[in-house]
Amino acid sequence: MDVPPALLAALPDARSITVLTGAGISTDSGIPDFRGPQGVWTRDPAAARLSTIGAYLADPQVRADAWRSRRDHPAWHAEPNAAHAALAGLERAGRLRALITQNIDGLHQRAGSAAVLEIHGTMREAECLACGLRTPMPEVLARVDAGEQDPPCPECGGIQKSATISFGQPLRQDVLDASITAARECDLFLAVGTSLTVEPAASLCLEAVERGAPLMILNAEPTPYDAVAAAVVRGPIGETLPRLADLVLGAAR
Ligand code: NAD
């Protein structure tokens, strides 16, 4: 692992690590990322329309396509991988300040992580955009399977959407505030499997760096934050993250 010797030596002393994960941590579980070489948007740039709130509200066909894409999402059949497990292990060992994820797939929780800040929401629930009612996603998808193209809210008849943050939607302020605090209060910040191109999530890296915490980036491709990182690790996350967790825990691998 290409890490400066001083940082390598300091890893066993990291007691309050904040981690930001992105789609790249779940590719080994069979869920494609958006912007990697096999990413959903790399292969079909028009797919981004399904994740834009203006198009979603304006066009019933976008909503019908979005529900079908949720129903067919690989996350329903995916299992957490070694990298998700490594983060759950760090939390169990009391070494994590926070786990912030941009992912909507719920795999961190399935791997055993208890405290996850889902900064972009979750696909496991639907939310009514009018009254805010939350419904388990499988209940809405059952209505889609039964022939409804765009199931309205069972309470108020409003438009429902996956409880994820689309482009043009605000983040939940409480989750964002907790994420910023966790970035400011950590002694090591790890950015894992993210292109660091979606704001404000990406600039959490700066919140940490500006307060003196070293930033480590584990990602196959370059990111806009590589220049301020104390270390950039390019290998496959399924190997690099478990190894890093072992170094923190003082276990040999
Ligand atoms: P992104 O697609 O922009 O970037 C993913 C990065 O991970 C890429 O730079 C890629 O090179 C790297 N990567 C992929 N697999 C890797 C591996 N095995 N080892 C090392 N690096 C690997 O993803 P993002 O930065 O998270 O932003 C995308 C947005 O899309 C997020 O907001 C997220 O909510 C959403 N998204 C979520 C999921 C999910 O929940 N699993 C999947 C796709 C997109």
Describe this structure in words.
The chain is α/β, with parallel strands linked by helices. It has two domains: 1-31 and 80-120 and 171-253, Rossmann fold; 35-72 and 122-164, SIR2/SIRT2 'Small Domain' (2-Layer Sandwich). Helices cover 34% and strands 17% of the residues. The protein has helices at 5-10, 40-43, 53-58, 60-71, 82-92, 107-111, 137-145, 173-184, 204-210, 237-249, and strands spanning 17-21, 96-101, 116-118, 121-128, 134-136, 160-164, 188-192, 215-218, 231-233. Strand 7 (188-192), helix 9 (204-210) and strand 8 (215-218) form a beta-alpha-beta unit. Helix 5 (82-92) packs parallel to helix 10 and helix 8 (173-184) packs parallel to helix 9 (204-210). The mean pLDDT is 94. Nicotinamide-adenine-dinucleotide binds next to helix 10.
Helix content: 25-40%
**Number of DSSP strands?**
9
Please outline the major beta sheet. 6 strands, parallel
Rg calc: 19 Å
User: Number of DSSP helices?
Assistant: 10
Overall mean confidence score, pLDDT:
94
Low-confidence stretches: none
Distance from N terminus to C terminus (CA atoms, Å) equals: 12 Å
Give the names of the bound compounds.
Answer: nicotinamide-adenine-dinucleotide
- CATH homologous superfamily of the largest domain? TPP-binding domain
Structural domain tally: 2
Spatial arrangement of strands, main beta sheet: 3-2-1-7-8-9
CATH architecture of the largest domain: 3-Layer(aba) Sandwich
Cα shape: elongated
- Beta-strand content bin: 15-25%
Q: What class do helices, strands and sheet pairing give?
A: alpha/beta
CATH topology of the largest domain: Rossmann fold
Could you give the order of the helices and strands?
HEHHHHEHEEEHEHEHEEH
Quaternary arrangement of the chains shown? single chain
